Amino acid sequence: MTNSSGSTALAEDFTASADETRRLYFRGAPGTLLGIQLVNMLLVLCTLGIYLFWAKVKVRRYVLGETEFEGDRFAYHGTGRELLIGSLKAGLIFGVPITLLQNLPVALNASAWIKVLCFVLGYSIVVLFIPFAIVGTRRYRLSRSSWRGIRFSFRGRALAFFRLYLRGAVLRVLMLGLYSPFWAVEKYAFLTANTYFGNRKFDFDGRGRDLFRSFLLLVLLVLPTLGIYGFWYQAKKLRYLTEHTSFDGARFTCTATGGGLCRLQLVNLLMVIATLGLALPWATVRSLRYWYDNIALQGPLDLSAIEQDYQAASATAEGLAGFLDLDFSLGA
Amino acid sequence: MILEWRGYYFDGRTAARHPVRVQIAATGLKLTLEDGATHFWPYEEMRQSQGFHTGEQVRFERGADPSEALLVTELDFLNTLHRMVPGLGRRFHRPERRLMRRSLTGFAALGVLAVGALMYFWGIPAAAKVVAARVPVSWEESLGRNIVDQFATGEMRCTDPEVGRMIADMTARLTAATPSPYTFRVAVVRAPVVNAFAVPGGNVVVFQGLIEQTRRPEELAGVLAHEFQHIIQKHTTRMLLQKTTTGLMLSAMTGDLSGAVAFGASAAHTLGTLRYNRAMEEEADVEGIKMLAAAGLDPAAMIDFFETLKKKSGAEPEYLAYLSSHPSTEQRIATLKSLAARSKPNAAAFSRYNWSELKKKCRAAERKR
Known about the structure:
The complex is a heterodimer.
Chain A: E1 21-22, E2 24-26, H1 30-46, H2 52-65, E3 67-69, E4 72-76, H3 80-107, H4 112-143, E5 145-147, E6 150-154, H5 158-174, H6 180-193, E7 195-197, E8 200-204, H7 209-221, H8 229-243, E9 245-247, E10 250-254, H9 258-274, H10 280-294, E11 295-298, H11 316-323
Antiparallel strand pairs in A: 1-11, 2-3, 3-4, 4-5, 5-6, 6-7, 7-8, 8-9, 9-10, 10-11
Chain B: E1 4-10, E2 18-24, E3 28-33, E4 38-42, E5 46-50, E6 58-62, E7 68-72, H1 76-84, H2 98-134, H3 137-151, H4 161-177, E8 185-189, E9 196-199, E10 203-207, H5 208-213, H6 217-232, H7 235-253, H8 258-269, H9 278-294, H10 300-315, H11 320-325, H12 330-340, H13 355-358
Parallel strand pairs in B: 8-10
Antiparallel strand pairs in B: 1-2, 1-7, 2-3, 3-4, 5-6, 6-7, 9-10
Helix pairs in contact in B: 2-7, 6-9, 6-10, 7-8, 9-12, 10-12
């Protein structure tokens, strides 16, 4: 597990040696998470849902606050107020026009082709908003996450992602789904290579064609294996994407396996079903631990030289994502 | 008592971790870095952002985003701080209250059950009643059309012209004497299920299996009158609102909104098995009988039909579909009978229909193999 190439040229004052492996650890307890969620539930019920935004913040704060890297915890700085305002704004910009488009023609008893036109228009708006929601949510979440007081940030332009997203979506349809692995890598590459920690950048050097053969195998095997092969493709993709990600000279490694993911997700599912959802925090923690146990950052890294480069961001896109039923994780 | 604590200071400019000595003073914390530089953090400028749970580090922040941060690894620091500087109880977490918080969390769990049950059994139904009364008929109609389209698609729908005329005749008779803001449409579905249900806005779905179980047209008219009343009394809209709201409540409690939309959609799908509460069924019975009587149709037919179903369901479970949502208790039949006794029906209302032929018209087409 050693990799000492290229470290001698930058021999200033490293706190860690070049071949050191750095990992994430989750220090939290599922029981505490359950307690937080129970109190959240009560408050959400009593406020008819308004507390939901604060509830989300409490959970994110706990999960990030219990995630450790190099002896220090991450921190989450978002607020419930921000999320509420973001959601209200997204409702105004997005929810109101969509609702009107969907219901006005029916209420006004418009002619059939106007109804169809409004339906198509409404649907297109939803689809076109998805890439903006993805980028905006990432921008917001990263800007509110920090480690050792240094914030993460996302600096990709929404319009560039929009073009990439639309192009991939169209190509995927034209190529009957075969473009999927290329599209997945393009999206991941854009989202990763525009992510910063302080003034240092993440990088990605993978290519979609490397996943193409595995994808073909998936297409061939998914039905005969009743979908179980999906876990192996998922693991392969996860490993590929992670191992081609680097941060400031250090490279990520990933040891996730199809069997591991399969066991993780099936056991989680059984646990949650058997306990009527009460075991959800345990499932969450198991997933986090699996992810943290199986990725590492390897190579030279001068952490103390990283400087703050704060980028402001608003929560509107996160509100939008809520409307679009999207959920993102910052794991990748 | 320890007067000096060890911690780490992050200046918010670099990711360097500065070891720092922390001293508690009356109005703030005094931080001394290794190079001798000192900072003074007044309490009123500090906020605690971590260290509320077992295993968490105590973390303070100061200043606007991105802020400086101070980490103190020993939990006892907070206890000492509260002892030495009274009046900070609101600003910083008190670790000694954790035990109390644990029992409060237990109460919260009970509270979730209590408030959840209260809302499920009382709050949501009451709110749905108030809201349903104010939902415009046009909304109900557009919602209902979507649901019917999902159920009675193309080939499934019986388009026999004779059945169509008979249903139209029956609907016209029933609605002529009892005005309502709805335009009623009845879709007959070619399926051997013994069932019928109402959809918001004036649509009723009747399965061929139910029609075939009726012995005379008045029995079907009785079922239609009952289902029309579920619409007129807005029972269907109320149930749909209730189900969607319950779904929203559940997914809000578990923290994701995405499930809510799916739940709403599935509510529309499960309309066929939607259970009205007993008060709603009684109201539909009473008003349905009134509707039949006003139209000059024999209300006793409705009672006969339920009794037939009840008898047959003992032996063959397929008759249970409609019965399960319309339990024919002795009491219910007695009420219906007392209501029906007062009417003077026109026995010849549907005499021109050859019922034994007509009721078989919508049988599913023979499968070609």
